[in-house]
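Cross-posting from the modeling subforum.

Setting up a comparison between two proteins and wanted a second pair of eyes on the formatting. Protein 1 (sequence, then structure tokens):
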Amino acid sequence: MRFAHPALLSLLCTALLPLSAGAQPGTVHVYGLVDLYLGRSATSGVPVRGNVLNSGGMTTSYWGVGGLEKLGGGQSASFAIEGFMRADTGEQGRTPGEGQFTRAAYVGLNGNWGATKIGRVPNPLFQASAALNPYGFSTRLSPLMTQMWIVPYGSSSAGDSGWSNAVHYTSPVVNGVNVVAQYGLGEHAANSPGNNKVAVLKYTGSALSAAVAAQDIGYGIGISNAAPSQRTYFAGAAYDFKVVKAYASVARNTQEGSGRTTRTTHLGLQVPHGAGRWLLAWARAQERAFLKAPFRRDTAAAGYDYNLSLRTDVYASYLYDKISTTADGNSFALGIRHKF
């Protein structure tokens, strides 16, 4: 797919025109989340790793500093600097060697015309897939998120949860509908490929939420000389019946060079119970490539998330993983998550 990225730059430049002199003192907040769990981890075809105490069961642990300044005339400026952390060891990043602020590092402007951001910006496709599954942002326990984004589970979608050198635009919401578009500069020569583009059309109503997305990746995780680009198409929805919330989505990934094609189907349920909720989810990825025999991967999860307060919850979950050509893997987690 092709996006006219100069249009995004034009929107940003328009937003940067001189604003009213009625700027007001801004606010700055420190915030974050610490999530730790005890458990056992094994993926299909891989020997059991044994007992673990890991960070980020339901949400990857992180901390951040962000702020907003009112500029007058309905305009405002905002910024966020956010870093992942491994709370089990006290180290920065999701993995050794990762940068300090890879969750987000951006500055932007907001108004009745929408919002812009530039810098290291969260990936709108990652955000959409997280919003439309019962386990949310969990990249350890959600069948959809593990299959789409995590290497041991196949990582069907390239590009990571955030993009560096990105220009982002979110449109105003009209009758529950808005558009999110993002362009990432690979910073190659002008005539070289290697940029990222994504657009997401979203609807949010009282009971129904839905999104369709298209993404084209030319740099980042999952991209190499042998596989220089990847396209992903995603469609998903969730409906809240009050007694149960149902989720469904489909995704298709096509990788240039390797011929890798993955089709992912996902179904899930979230059932309120007491002070918490039951979580049920299943995803199937069907994959083929030039030098591989076709196979499928089934990943399913069941768990319960209990709220101790508005900011603290505890959870227990089981994850089953099975590639059609290898033995299954079984994981479980018992954890606690605290927001600050």
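Protein 2 (same layout):
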Amino acid sequence: MKKLAATIFFESTALLLLGLIVVMSASSAYSEFKFDSVYHLFNSHLFKVLFGFGLMVLFSFIPYEIYKDYSKPAIILTTIILFLTLFLAPTVKGAGRWISLGLFTFQPADVARLILVIHLAALLESKRNFISDFKNGFIYLFIWVVIVCGLILIQPNISNAILLAFISIILLYVGGAKLTHIIASSFGCLLAGGTGAMIFSHSRERIFAFINNLSNGGDLNLQVKQALLGLGSGGIFGVGIGHGKQSNLFLPEAYGDFIFAVMGEELGFIGAIVIISSFLALFLVGIVIAKKTKDRFGQLLAFGISFSIILYAFINIAVSTGLLPTTGLPLPFISYGGTSMTFLCISIGILINIAISNSADRKSNIEVVSNSNDRV
């Protein structure tokens, strides 16, 4: 398990370093145009990466078991913050998602993602004998999913709400919930997410633009079109770091949600495959850690963290390649960002601690039997 912890640490560090290089390349032209300094955004990102890396190291030394005891007050506090976001967050592009605390701003949805996974893992352990009972077990857990994801949905932050609901439902299934309960709750989440997407104009326009398959040539499709051009022009080996056209103001906010397109252009098909493989490897190592962890809480927490990282990574890549409508979700470890980077690094630190704390390998006791009759 110590080798697995080291693998997670070095692979995460490598992705962070790669992110620094690509953000420097992708942001320099915009930084010079907007701030009269090619290093403005890079310096900001460098600080956030160093801060996040420090938190990753710190949390790797904190025993993960203590989060179980504080998960309930943490989820209550997170819910309050999400509620206050509806009134305190300034509206940007039709949504209020960020709260300002003077020196910095943060996005509560990024906080909620980790806290909800921790709380569900804790409840799945404490109510393990009741999870198959809808009234006394499942609904008690699922109500937290509804509250947290519902508050994120009405900000509106539909993509984060849908993905967090999906992560939660998968975690509940892995934790032993009945398939019938999962299907019913999934239908409700899809209905709520679809309704929200149609109610809020910016989400509706994104979906319609995607359905039109980039045919209208409007601004809504500009990022995706330029991203595809960048990916296509990269060839097998890429044009080289700092030599891509999309980072020269052709691709809006190339250093953010569409940074995968910049990597595809500058590092080529080979580089893109390496990035995708790195995320897949990170997920597989996380699954091995979960299987070898001694306690149920640690198992579910390791799985939840690993699954959320690869899900967000693949959704971001799917958007950059035109397979999904634009979502505004960053590429983990690599995209320019603050709150998402911070809590991603904290999550990795927790995952490392789970591996270290369970270094004496023992057979997993996680109860996930997909074909069991009592799951239907």
